[in-house]
Design a protein that fits this description.
The chain has four domains: 61 residues; 142 residues, no CATH class; 138 residues, Alpha-Beta Horseshoe (Leucine-rich repeat, LRR (right-handed beta-alpha superhelix)); 86 residues, no CATH class. The protein is 38% helix and 13% strand. It is built from 20 helices and 17 strands. The protein has an eleven-stranded parallel sheet with strand order 4-6-7-8-9-10-11-12-13-14-17, with helices on one face. A four-stranded parallel sheet has the order 1-2-3-5. A two-stranded antiparallel sheet has the order 15-16. This is Leucine-rich repeat-containing protein 14. Belongs to the PRAME family. LRRC14 subfamily. Keywords: Leucine-rich repeat, Repeat.
C-alpha cells in the first residue's frame, strides 16, 4: 500500500473511491501511516477528521503509545469510546498512553489542532464481553464491571457532525474531561497499579478530569479505601449501586449514608447483609440512613437481601419519594404486616418486578399475598416466589390471582414443595397468559425429598424426565410452543 508524501491528500484520494471500500481503505491507510510513527504524529494537522478513528484503532491494536497520546491531544470529536478496543486488545500500556494524553492537553500554539474531547468512555459492554468470551480483558482489568447500563449520548456529541472540522467556531480555554467507567470494588483492588494510578491521576488533575461511574459494586472493601474512592467519583453520575458488605461501626454507617444521600440520580440500589437497627439503642443511626435514602428522588429499583426486616418494611418504603418499578426483598424474614403494608403502598401502582424469594409466605395464603398480587396484576411482568414454602393448597389459592396478571412474562417458583399435579394445573391455567414466556418451576415432591422447604437429597431422574415429558406434551396441546418451562434441578435430565 503506497503512502504519498502529501499526507493530507491521502484521505481525499480514498474518498473518491466507492463507499463500500472506504472503511477497509481507511484501515489500510491508518496502518501504513503508523509504519512511520514520528511522521504520522507530526502530520496530524493535515488529517481530516474521518481518518482519526481508524488511526486510533490501529495505534491501539499495535501498541503505538506515542501516537495514541498525540491522537488524544488532537482528537477532533467530543466523544471517544474505547470499550470495544479494550475487549479486543486488552493492553494496559496502550490504555495508559491514552490517559497520559489527557494529563496535559497541549498548550495553545503547541499544536494548531486542539483536542475537542469531553468524554472518554472506558466502559465494557456486557453483551460484547459475553459474546466474545474474553476473559483476558477482565483478568487484566478485574475492577471494571461489564455493564448493561447504557450511557446517555452527551449533548455535545449529539450536536456534532463527524464530517465537520471541529476546529471551526469559538472554543473555551479549558473544559473538564469525563472518564466513564463501571467499577467492581473488592479486596485486593489496592494492589492493582492501574486503578491506583487512575485514581491518583484524577485526584491530582485539579478538576480537569472527572471520574464518572454509572454502575458501582462494593464488596468486602476496607472502609477508609472506599470513602477515598467515593470522594474521587462524581457521585451524581452513579445510576446503579450494589453494596454486598455492611459496616459494623455506627460512625461508618453514618458516613456512608451521607455519601449515599449525595447520589442524587441513583436509579437502582442493592443492599445485602445490611443490619436494619430499629431497636431504641440504634434508632438514631437507622433514622439517619432512612433520611438519606429519602433524598433519592429518581430511585426505581430497590433490592434488599439477607437482612432482618420483620415488621419494619413500612419504615424503609415510606421514606421513598416516588413509586418503585422493581422491588426485590429476598430472605428478609417478612411478616404478614409487611406484605399488607406493601399491598396498600404507592409502589403497587407501578411495580413491574416483584421478588419475595426466601421469605416464608405459606401462612399468608389465603390473605395478604393474594391481595398484593391482585393489586400489582395490572403492571407486573416479573414475579419471583422461590423458596417461599408454598405447597399445593397455597398455589391453588393464588392461582386465580396469577391468571389476572395479564402482562406477566416470567414466573419463578423454584424450591417450593409442589406436586406434579399442581404444576400441570398451573400450566393449564397460565397458558392463557400470552405474555408469559418463561416459568422456573420446582422439582415436584414425587421426584425428591423436601426438608424445611428446601429440596433435599438426590433427584429421581426417571420420574423427573416423566414430569418434563408431561409438561412438554401439555404445552403442545395448549399451543404454547413459545412458553419455556425450566426445572430448578441440580442434575439436568438426560
Amino acid at each position: 500500500f503506497h503512502v504519498p508524501r502529501d499526507w493530507g491528500s491521502l484521505e481525499s484520494h480514498i474518498c473518491k473511491m466507492s463507499n463500500p471500500s472506504l472503511p477497509k481503505l481507511l484501515e489500510l491507510a491508518a496502518y501504513s501511516l503508523l509504519s512511520n510513527e514520528a511522521s504520522a504524529i507530526s502530520a496530524l494537522e493535515e488529517f481530516t477528521v474521518n481518518l482519526f478513528p481508524p488511526l486510533l484503532t490501529a495505534a491501539f491494536a499495535k501498541g503505538h503509545e506515542k501516537a495514541l497520546k498525540a491522537l488524544v491531544q488532537a482528537w477532533p470529536f467530543p466523544f471517544l469510546r474505547l470499550g470495544s478496543l479494550i475487549v479486543q486488545w486488552p493492553n494496559q500500556e496502550s490504555l495508559q498512553a491514552v490517559l497520559d494524553g489527557l494529563e496535559a492537553l497541549p498548550a495553545h500554539g503547541t499544536y494548531p489542532r486542539r483536542s475537542e474531547l469531553r468524554v472518554l468512555d472506558l466502559t465494557l459492554d456486557f453483551d460484547q464481553v459475553q459474546s466474545k468470551g474474553v476473559a483476558e480483558a477482565l483478568a487484566m482489568f478485574p475492577f471494571w464491571l461489564p455493564s448493561t447500563v447504557k450511557a446517555p449520548m452527551p449533548q455535545a456529541m449529539a450536536k456534532s457532525n463527524p464530517r465537520e472540522d471541529t476546529r471551526k467556531g469559538p472554543k473555551k480555554l479549558w473544559e473538564p474531561v469525563e472518564l466513564h467507567i463501571d467499577l467492581f470494588l473488592r479486596v485486593p483492588f489496592k494492589f492493582d497499579p492501574f486503578l491506583s494510578g487512575l485514581l491518583t491521576k484524577v485526584e491530582k488533575s485539579g478538576g480537569s478530569l472527572r471520574l464518572c461511574c454509572r454502575k458501582l459494586h462494593i464488596e468486602e472493601m476496607p472502609f477508609n479505601s472506599l470513602i477515598g474512592i467515593l470522594k474521587t467519583l462524581e457521585l451524581d453520575f452513579i445510576q446503579e449501586l450494589e453494596v454486598f458488605d455492611w459496616f459494623r461501626a455506627l460512625s461508618e454507617q453514618r458516613l456512608f449514608a451521607t455519601h449515599l444521600g449525595r447520589i442524587c440520580n441513583l436509579r437502582s440500589l442493592k443492599l445485602a447483609y445490611y443490619h436494619w437497627a430499629f431497636s431504641p439503642v440504634s434508632e438514631q443511626s437507622c433514622g439517619y440512613f432512612l433520611s438519606q435514602l429519602s433524598k433519592l428522588g429518581h430511585l426505581q429499583k430497590l433490592h434488599l437481601s439477607y437482612s432482618y426486616l420483620s415488621g419494619n418494611l413500612h419504615q424503609v418504603l415510606s421514606c421513598l419519594q416516588s413509586p418503585l418499578h422493581a422491588l426485590e426483598i429476598c430472605s428478609c424474614t417478612l411478616l404478614d404486616i409487611d406484605i399488607t403494608y406493601l399491598s396498600h403502598s404507592l409502589h403497587v401502582t407501578c411495580l413491574k418486578k416483584l421478588d419475595l424469594s426466601g421469605n416464608d409466605l405459606s401462612y399468608m395464603v389465603p390473605g395478604p399475598l393474594e391481595t398484593l398480587l391482585e393489586k400489582v396484576s395490572g403492571t407486573l411482568q416479573h414475579l419471583n416466589l422461590n423458596h417461599c414454602r408454598l405447597k399445593d393448597a397455597h398455589l391453588s389459592a393464588i392461582l386465580p390471582t396469577l391468571c389476572h396478571c395479564s402482562w406477566l412474562r416470567f414466573l419463578g417458583l423454584s424450591d417450593n414443595p409442589i406436586s406434579q399435579a399442581s404444576l400441570l394445573s398451573l400450566l393449564e391455567h397460565t397458558a392463557r397468559l400470552m405474555e408469559l414466556k418463561h416459568v422456573l418451576y420446582p422439582i415436584p415432591v414425587e421426584c425428591c425429598t423436601y426438608l424445611h422447604g428446601l429440596s433435599w437429597g438426590p433427584v429421581n431422574k426417571n420420574k423427573m424426565c416423566q414430569v418434563q415429558a408431561e409438561i412438554q406434551k401439555l404445552l403442545q396441546a395448549m399451543q404454547r410452543a413459545d412458553m419455556q418451562w425450566s426445572p430448578h434441578c441440580p442434575s439436568p435430565c438426560p
